[in-house]
Amino acid sequence: MEQTTSTETQHAQHAQHAQHTPHIAHLSDVHLLESRPGWSGAGYAFQLRFVSFGRRLDADERRERLLRNLVAARKMDAKHVVISGDLTEMGTDVQFESLGEVLDASGIDPDRFVLVPGNHDAYSDGEAFRRALAGPLARWKAGAATTPGKIVDRGDVCFLPLDVSVHQAVTRSGGVLDGASAAALEARLADPALRRKATIVVAHHPPYGEGPKVWQWIDAMRGGERIMSLLERFENVHVLHGHLHRATTRTIVGTRSNVFGAPAVVEGPVDQTRVRTYELRSGVLESTGIWAA
Ligand SMILES: [Fe+2]
Predict the structure, then answer these.
(1) β-bridge partners, 258
(2) Do the bridges between strand 284-291 and strand 157-161 make them parallel or antiparallel, or are there none, so unpaired?
(3) Is residue 76 part of a domain?
(4) 262 part of a folded domain
(5) What is the Å distance from ligand 1's center to 114 Cα?
(6) Total domains present in the chain
(7) Ligand 1 midpoint to CA 190 (Å)
(8) 122 falls within a domain
(9) Does the pLDDT value for residue 274 go beyond 70?
(10) Residue 10: its pLDDT value, please?
(11) Helices (DSSP H) in the chain: which residue ranges?
(12) Which domain holds residue 45?
């Protein structure tokens, strides 16, 4: 099936965003650092510099960026706040503690959040996000990716948060949709009860690859083609993702399904928000631009 892709431009930014309340505020790629000493040693410091190449290693600035974007989401009174992965830079316990502190400081009800981990959240080990959900992120667990096929039913919209993160060397940045997760996802979408409302899959990686095959081997989601197939077969299913660090839209032509990517909170001017917003119109999810204020 034909697909079209576009990258959002400045023209898509809200000109009149004070006039309406977005249904969903979408943040991504926060890349929080530790605000107090955690891991140490030359090996860790080297890996941290490698994965954070091109970004200032300033823990306070990264917290400020996240808080600024969350405060914007609170002020716009978004009904749901999605953060689509790379919550932390290395997935250490102290970085997740820092995330919990900023989420708390935002003043947003934890039950409004949907959280999934990204490849950066699994660089320390493959259990870090799960540990965090049992500890500093426990209050946000209800809306977080945990088990394959998990549904976060928010009444008018149903989220399916996917964990496609995998522990790997810092030289790779891919994701994996394993067979069990893909089968569980398909079973959920086939459920007639779900078809009555907009269904939103949240994953860190886009379900399609970009660039040369060798780059896709390093950076893409393995198994993502199964999600693309589901978008063609099931009505009114959408994907919200991050990873690309820019706003993108891929429309599955002939359907009402879209794949939306959000810009990275960690990039751009510190004093500017980078929240992508969406409306539900007649039950269909539509992007309303980037909340840049
Ligand atoms: Fe990222």
Answers:
(1) 251
(2) unpaired
(3) yes
(4) yes
(5) 17
(6) 1
(7) 31
(8) yes
(9) yes
(10) 36
(11) 42-51, 59-75, 93-105, 128-134, 179-189, 213-219, 224-233
(12) 3-285
